[in-house]
């Protein structure tokens, strides 16, 4: 990943006219499903930063999926 090699740990801020919104789509709820996070231009004047992880439950789900202890999800949600 180029950002990891360049020493950057965060996704760069957008420089467009609109803030970025996102929504998650999942097709099929089986072992072989498709999960997609769609980013789109939004019109929310109160939000300047992009929300890359919409809520803390994503960290816990990712930790569970990776088979790591739950406290890893707590640490990630605290850091981000």
TrEMBL record:
GO biological process: lipid catabolic process
One Pfam family here: PAF-AH_p_II
Domain of life: Eukaryota
Organism the protein comes from: Cricetulus griseus (Chinese hamster)
Record protein name field: 1-alkyl-2-acetylglycerophosphocholine esterase
MF GO annotations: 1-alkyl-2-acetylglycerophosphocholine esterase activity
Record keywords, A-Z: Hydrolase, Lipid degradation, Lipid metabolism
EC number: 3.1.1.47
InterPro entries reported in the protein's UniProt record: AB_hydrolase_fold
Top EC class, one word: hydrolase
